[in-house]
Amino acid sequence: MSRKPSRLVVALLLGAFMALLGPGCRTAPAGMRASALVRCEFRQTHMGMPFRIVLYAPDAAVGEAAAAAAFARIAELNRILSDYEPDSELSRLSRSAGSGAVVPLGPDLARVLERAGEISRLGDGAFDVTVGPLVDVWKRARRQRVLPEAARVEAARAATGWRHVVLGRDASGRRTATLRVPGMRLDLGGIAKGYALDEATRVLRSRGIRHSLVSGGGDLFAAGSPPGQPGWKVEVGELDVTNAPPGRVVWLKDRALVTSGDRFQRVELGGVRYSHLVDPRTGWALTHPSQVSLIGREAMTTDALSKVLSVLGPEPGLERIRRHPVEALVLHAPRGPVEVVETPGWRRYERR
């Protein structure tokens, strides 16, 4: 089982972010006071991105302690799942690549890798957590504004492949992993954030918080709804191209919303727009403007499925993910004008 943060850790974190942000709770508006709830809002940076928690609690002390516990859980997951932290469990696993070592996994990393394998199989490799070497190549390309050489891309691709992550169990039943190819480096950027949103919401619920919005890097999980409202009102932004259709507004209750696109991470090289999203099957970054938004029952799976849909495109992508209870809004411009594709159930989240 996961190690829960001690009360001391929670108290220290609470003191730290309250000192930075000041009081985070206020009485609900007059029309909502019958609920006897206060609205609390807090922000912290984790996983290299801002996380925000909005919640309704019986009083400020309960809300503040619950938020502190949720942030502590996100921080714990970063120490486990980060590919930037050299001592994280994920980094230690990556260093075993090609050695033949059978590495025991903690429950969080095991859960994420199991789900990643399922989504990789569903998308035939369009989602792949072994993409780390390719991500490094394209980060360098964006930083230096120079298209990578094909040989460099192929060398990185040779160190990837989701089928080379072999999950098993040891004699005690604990989950294990073996990375079969030298140079492999796992990157959970397409799934770990969703897992963190799910876990933070779970922690809030365990502390009696039934109405919360947890967001990180533009993705979110909406639990319950604000008092007196049918859901949490959330805007889905427009595609970052000329003459794009306006953004949309959805109302969410007990649903995750995940958006994948290149609005903030891209580079133009030789007149071609290269996204930060990489097709693991070819090793090359996506080259047409695209924004994929998915609404699902939990954030981890929804996060990973959004990458499948981004890489494969609307028609084949929607066919691949149709077994999952998600609704999609896809905006893409492969040949000029923006094309809008949405699943039949998307509109019901707009009608409140």
Explain what you see.
The protein is of the alpha+beta class. The protein has 3 domains: 1-83 and 192-219, no CATH class; 89-179, Orthogonal Bundle (T-fold), CATH 1.10.3980.10; 230-352, ApbE-like domains (T-fold). The protein is built from 9 helices and 16 strands. It has helices spanning 7-21, 60-81, 89-95, 107-122, 132-144, 150-157, 192-206, 299-312, 314-321; strands spanning 25-27, 38-46, 49-57, 103-104, 165-169, 175-179, 211-216, 219-223, 232-236, 248-252, 255-261, 266-269, 272-275, 290-296, 327-332, 339-342. The strands form 4 sheets. Strands 1-2-3-7-8-11-14-15-16 form a 9-stranded antiparallel β-sheet. A 3-stranded antiparallel β-sheet has the order 4-6-5, covered by helices on one side. Strands 9-10 form a two-stranded antiparallel ribbon. Strand 7 (211-216) and strand 8 (219-223) form a beta hairpin. Helix 4 (107-122) runs parallel beside helix 8 (299-312), helix 7 runs antiparallel to helix 8 and helix 8 (299-312) packs antiparallel against helix 9 (314-321). Residues 1-23 have low confidence and may be disordered.
